[in-house]
Amino acid sequence: DGGITQSPKYLFRKEGQNVTLSCEQNLNHDAMYWYRQDPGQGLRLIYYSQIVNDFQKGDIAEGYSVSREKKESFPLTVTSAQKNPTAFYLCASNYRGQDYGYTFGSGTRLTVV
Amino acid sequence: QQQVKQSPQSLIVQKGGISIINCAYENTAFDYFPWYQQFPGKGPALLIAIRPDVSEKKEGRFTISFNKSAKQFSLHIMDSQPGDSATYFCAASMRGGANNLFFGTGTRLTVIP
User: Fold this and answer.
1) How far apart are CA B38 and CA B35, in angstroms?
2) DSSP letter at B101?
3) What is the pLDDT of residues B30-49, one digit of tens each?
4) Least CA distance to A5: which residue of chain B?
5) Shortest Cα distance, chain A CAs vs residue B5, angstroms
6) Cβ neighbours of residue B29 closer than 8 Å, sequence gap 6 or more
7) Which of A43, A99, A106 sits opposite B42 (nearest CB)?
8) Interchain CB contact of B50 with A (< 8 Å)
9) How far apart are CA B82 and CA A62, in angstroms?
10) Is A99 close to B99, i.e. CB distance below 8 A?
11) Which residues on A lie below 8 Å from B98 (Cβ)?
12) Quick check: B13 and B113 in contact, CB under 8 A?
């Protein structure tokens, strides 16, 4: 079945440590997105990529980095510069230029310990 | 600046009742308005969507009402069931841009038996 796979489901990070969240899709979607979800604040866009080897900052990109070397993969690195990384991270994808709606992964919950 | 404003933040409805969630937007370039349903610990899933050329769309117990002149749209859940208890997000996007969805802040719906 086609879909988006995020891993791990739970992740713990120590202060000053970089961590990478994985997002893989087999839907042949062109565009991929990373959102951060905090209680009461909805979904905030971190980064997005419309095509391979290209990506754009979203509303809250500071302290995060991404890469898009393959169409299927869009990993997110939470760097030590992100001062408040504890959140639920969601990856999504869709066909570029189409607004049929996003397909979301099941999320990664990141906690700073 | 919140592009899409959603209310209420939380909603409690008796089983069999009607749940109503409202959203408002300012950008008249928006032309696609989806609603997403999210269960705890899961990613959002597309529930129903509407374009501004129609005033209402119904799928089963879920109906979107759209008022283009008021720049408002709402989700109505008829005969609400305990299984409908989830967080609901409205969103809006425009064609031709970066194809990003702008999300409301979410409404936590609880349907009590």
Assistant:
1) 10
2) P
3) 989 999 999 988 999 999 99
4) B43
5) 11
6) B94, B97
7) A106
8) no
9) 39
10) yes
11) 48, 50, 56
12) no
A102 vs B contacts (CB less than 8 Å):
44, 46, 101
Residue A85 at interface with chain B, using a CB cutoff of 8 Å: no
Terminal Cα distance for chain A, rounded: 35
CA-wise closest residue to A102 among A38, A40, A31: A31
- Is some CB atom of chain A closer than 8 A to the CB atom of B99? yes
Q: Which residue has the tokens 């990529």?
A: A49
Q: Which has the closest alpha carbon to B89: B40, B25, B3, B22?
A: B22
Across chain A, which has 113 residues, the per-10-residue mean pLDDT values are 90 91 95 90 90 94 97 96 92 78 92 89
Q: Mean pLDDT, chain B, as a whole number?
A: 93
User: What residues have CB less than 8 Å from B56, skipping those under 6 apart?
Assistant: B50, B63, B64, B65, B66
Q: What is the mean pLDDT of residues B77-94?
A: 95
Distance CA B81, CA B95 (A): 35
Q: What does the alpha-carbon distance between residue B66 and residue A48 come to, in Å, rounded to a whole number?
A: 29
Find residue A97's DSSP bridge partners. Answer: none
Token pair in block for residue B27:
């950008």
Q: Rounded to the nearest 10 degrees, how much is the dihedral formed by the CA atoms of B70, B74, B79, B82?
A: -150
Place of tokens 């999300």: B103
